[in-house]
Amino acid sequence: MDLSYGEAAEAFRKEVRGFIKAAWQPGELRGAELKDHIRAFRRAAIEQGYLYRSVPKRYGGSEQPVDVIRAQVIREEFGRARAPMEVGGNGVNMTVPTLLEKGTEEQRELFIRPTIEGDYIWGQGYSEPGSGSDLASVRTKAELSADGSKWIVNGQKIWTSQGMQATHMFMLVRTEPDAPKHDGITYLLMDLNQPGVTRRPIRQMTGEQGSHTFCEFFFDNAEAPVSWQVGERGQGWYVSRTTLKHERASIGSADGLGSQFRKLVELAQEMGRIGDPLVRDRLAEIEGRVLSHRYTSFRLFSCAAAGEDPGAVPLLMKLLLTEIGHDIALLAQDLIGEEGMTEPLGAGGRGPRGPRGPNKWLDQIMGSLGNSIAGGASNIQRNIIGERGLGLPRDLAMSAEK
Amino acid sequence: MHFHLTAEQVAIQDAVRGTLGECWGMERLHAFADGEADFDAESWQALMALGIGALALPEAEGGAGLGLLDAALVCEVAGEAAAPGPLIGQIVAALAVAQCQDAATRALLPGIASGETVATIALDSNLVQCARTAQLFLADDGAGGLCLIAAGEGVEIEAVSATDRSRPVSRVTFGSAKTYPLFVAGDPMVQRIRDAALVLIAADALGGAQHCTDLSVEYAKTREQFGQPIGRFQGLKHQLAHMMLDVEPARAQVWYAAYGWDAGLPDATRAAAMAKAHLCEVYTRTTRAAIAAHGGIGYTWEYGLNYWFRRSVHNRAWLGSPAQHRARAAQLAGW
Q1: Which residues contact A278 (CB under 8 A, 6 or more apart)?
Q2: Residue in A136, A129, A374 with CA at minimum distance from that of residue A237
Q3: DSSP 8-state code for residue B35
Q4: What is the pLDDT of residue A352?
Q5: Distances in Å between the alpha carbon of A274 and those of A186, A330, A356, B114, B335?
Q6: Closest chain A CA to residue B9
Q7: Packing angle between helix B234-263 and helix A277-306, nearest 10 degrees?
Q8: Residue B178: alpha-carbon gap to chain centroid
Q9: Phi and psi dihedrals of B138, rounded to 5?
Q10: Which A residues in the span 52-71 are in contact with B, Cβ-Cβ below 8 Å?
Q11: Contact B327/A316, CB-based, under 8 Å?
Q12: What ipTM goes with this model?
């Protein structure tokens, strides 16, 4: 075993570092000037082949061969310099790969470049009130207009991240009400700035509200051109299963977890509890899990770099991260003690706020609960691990369906 | 960057698994568990014939030139099979002697490497695996260093009823026995040898925990209740998923600790402590969960899960409890 990235990667690292040093000069820039500088920096980084490596050049990407180690070096160096990386979000992570795999040439021309340049922000229109983990039970309905040129959409979507900023939505709508559940769904793209669309922020248990929280969307005869339908009519469920595999392996979430754990240790120190044998024991016990997650991320990264199949291991990572988050939350709650009786100003994560004390951990303490729900609820993860990881027979309710 | 097993490492595990499959099945385990012996010569010779005693020794010492990582992979398979014999003691004693400068001690190396001389660990406790058979005891020299004590005069052995039936312990008292020096107090090798033992115990725990998970999953696929394989029921399915969630990520922690020892990483001692603590917790949880998943059959002697449960009890207490190693890890982190 060898955890170094090798000489070629270190030479590449120097090159990336040199580029960032020359091209990323935000200095005192603010507002529109800063925005322009970021845009210019990203363009230069794309020219170097550092960003949007899986996106063809004709759509504005850098079209590089798959190389997980180079991709990791780029993430590390951009992260270290706090230089702007890819714009991220649902657009880059979901819309772009879906269009590259299943979209029409017209859709790719229309959407990919403005998405990776950050002009189009995409909301995900999968969840509906009542649909929960049974995602294919979508009821939002789309019918063809009389002339057959447009889909007319009626219904409701919920839990859309960046919903207040979103300019567009990729969504699952029911188009064939008489077809079997999974075969009556169509995948549509929609412009959200139109009279038939109403959006409303959802106030979360953290208190977070306003422009950065999740939204619910109401569709009242909203329209989407038929040419914005991705894949065949009725095949939307299968289009939505398209996943991005390209350079996906990274040790990013392990680094995030590691820094969260370090902050937990710092909290124990700040609260004067680090000498308490019970606290030390709990910290070390949690760290046992944190390290298991970290080294397993190395393992997945190593398999990806070598082009080898990691088997069922990737199925574990989301639940593992979620469970460790709960452990951290429970210890943090004990450590902050009575500080937890008050909330910091601007509770709920993002947004401007004043100085923050130990009670800032309330964000993590409550937020860890969200991780058990978002992106595949923990009990669904357990089913996936049991069925796909261990080969146990499928749940009766689900196997009856398909 | 390479942090998964090579084809050669997988082949080493397959070879050990194949050998143990031939000479150490449930029937042999049952007979051994109910017998008087604390050592099984046939399986020991079969394992030693694979070169396990010399696996982690440098080629100049007649070894295979592999590392503690490869030794850990072997111990993992031994844990899977609940193999008898002081395998961990043998490997650690070989590592110690190969690094030692004393000529008389070094003369013991060929016997240890070939497996003809059986060595066991007698550190921190007078309950010692396979003590009635072992010819050498890896022990504290009384001043914080390490030595090997020869069996025979000055070594008193009292039979006890051992919890772990696969590697039975006896109570050992050392008098004025023949001693071979290894490392004096303050020599970094003292800690390194202890670390190696912790990593190998963690590896044994990993193999045992994986085996108990595999048995439980297999049982859940075949055992039917209410006209269904019980593995279809979410209550059990989720418990089994959590066994996998506990065991599989911990595997990489064993790899890291062994790799850290081989590479001499600055956090090697802490990684060994963390791996020992974490894997012994995983082993305890997994054997308990396995018996629960099996229901009544898991509680019988005959089915045999108890051998792994017993081994998890032994591993957990051996060379310090998880809590003791967590306390060390906290200290080593400067908390």
Answers
A1: none
A2: A136
A3: S
A4: 52
A5: 55, 16, 21, 48, 6
A6: A1
A7: 80
A8: 27
A9: -80, 115
A10: 69
A11: no
A12: 0.97
Task: Indicate if the alpha-carbon torsion angle B326, B327, B332, B335 is positive or negative.
Answer: positive
Cβ distance of A298 and B245 shorter than 8 Å:
no
Position with higher pLDDT, A81 vs B64: A81
pLDDT at residue B197, rounded to an integer: 98
**Percent of chain A scoring above 70 in pLDDT:** 94
pLDDT at A206: 84
Residue type, B277: A
What is the rounded distance in angstroms from the CA atom of residue B173 to the CA atom of residue A102?
74
Q: Please answer whether residues B240 and B231 qualify as being in contact, where contact means their C-beta atoms are separated by less than 8 angstroms.
A: yes
| Rg of chain A on CA atoms, in Å | 23
Nearest to B325 by CA among B242, B206, B183, B201: B201
The pair of three-digit structure tokens given for residue B248, joined into one six-digit string: 């599989």
Instruction: Decide if B277 touches A, using CB distance below 8 A.
Output: yes
Note whether B259 contacts A: Cβ–Cβ < 8 A.
yes
CB B228 within 8 A of CB B220: no
The candidate with the shortest Cα–Cα distance to A376, out of A243, A287, A185, is A243
CA atoms of B39 and A360, how far apart (whole Å): 58
Its sign, for the CA torsion B258, B260, B264, B269, is negative
Residue A135 has what pLDDT? 87
Q: Which of residues 84-103 of B touch A (CB under 8 A)?
A: none
Q: Are B163 and B314 in contact (CB under 8 A)?
A: yes
Lowest mean per-residue pLDDT among A127-141, A335-349, B168-182 = A335-349
Mean pLDDT over B54-69 rounds to 91
User: Which residues in chain A have their CB less than 8 angstroms from residue B256's CB?
Assistant: 291, 295, 298
Are the Cβ atoms of B330 and A392 closer than 8 angstroms?
A: no
Complete domains list, chain A, with CATH: 7-86 (no CATH), 97-239 (2.40.110.10), 252-399 (1.20.140.10)
Catalytic-residue membership of A247: yes
- Both tokens of B50, joined, read 């694979």
Chain segment A276-297, per-residue pLDDT in tens: 999 999 999 999 999 999 999 9
Residue the block writes with tokens 């894949």: A231
Residue B211, helix vs strand vs coil: helix
E runs forming strands in B40-124: 119-121
| B73, B203 Cβ separation under 8 angstroms | yes
Coil vs helix vs strand at B31: helix
Give the pLDDT of residue A250: 65
Q: H-helix or E-strand containing A230?
A: strand A229-230
Q: What is the DSSP secondary structure assignment for residue A94, as one 8-state letter?
A: I
Residue B228: DSSP 8-state:
E
Choose from B245, B278, B321 for mutation: most chain A CBs within 10 A: B245
Tokens of B5: 């097993």
pLDDT at A133: 84
Pairwise CA distance, residues B122 & B108, whole Å: 18
Chain B residues lying within 8 Å of A291, measured CB to CB: 253, 256, 271, 274, 278
Q: Is the dihedral of CA A226, A230, A232, A234 positive or negative?
A: negative
- The answer to whether A85 touches A98, Cβ cutoff 8 Å, is no
In this prediction, residues A98-113 reach a mean pLDDT of 96
State whether residue A400 is helix, strand or coil: coil
Domains of chain B: 188-332 (1.20.140.10)
